[in-house]
């Protein structure tokens, strides 16, 4: 990362950091249009990001902070999500009590149940390892991709967020995203909260998000998510587990996800990760189910550059449309199973 000192006043200490992540690779997909499909895909193991973040010391233990972050594809340099800073944009204050931010930012299904829970394992969990499956009738945005919001596909616009600092291993946070509908404070709003614990080898996390969507009962209903998880970390391995519950409050369509994973540091530069998950819908989702297995092998050339390979397999069943669909792939399978094999490279700056 490149840190640039920016003096704003004689008595103030300010800095701006420019940072980014790059990911590219080849993915082979089974059961698409009756054949195997091989594609060049980017931003799968980590999103391709370019960002600016900074702070200014205001004295008395208070800092002004900001972040501006965009996402793009390496296929042809295209911006993702529109022009400008489409990933995160916020400004706020940090103190000895906690951090208050305002803008376009993550809620806690991702921040607590992915980033905080997985900690050092997060770099080895790709978009392919996360959730999609045969659950489009849930009514979530993006055709069911990241329906439980742990993949970080969603940010909350017009949001105010507060996260406490750590106290005896605990911290907590709350977020409110304003719907900004005239005459109704609640319509199209988002509420999120979390509590986290980390001490020694143990970590535990719980999060809740209720996002009312304009496409669900005119913004009066939406998708309610909650989840719990944790991890145990040893010098050369880590195990983790999570349960999430996703419900459309208008249709009562619901999917529960049970997931377990483990890492093994074969050498200081070589990490193997495996995980299994069961995604299980209720009657409003035609009792559809998906079993998914994933394995990642990663090798670090340096602290900034690594290569990896993923293998992910999904098998579905149920009474409705049960075409398998691994998260991050361009389309569903022709049948009840789908496999993704990927070889890729990442660089951080």
UniProtKB/TrEMBL annotation:
The protein's name: Porin
Domain Porin: residue ranges: 5-318
Chain coiled-coil ranges: none
GO molecular function: porin activity
One Pfam family per UniProt: Porin_4
Main localization category: membrane
UniProtKB keywords: Cell outer membrane, Ion transport, Membrane, Porin, Signal, Transmembrane, Transmembrane beta strand, Transport
Cell compartment(s), UniProt: Cell outer membrane
This protein's record includes keyword Transmembrane: yes
Record membrane topology: Multi-pass membrane protein
Organism for this UniProt entry: Lampropedia aestuarii
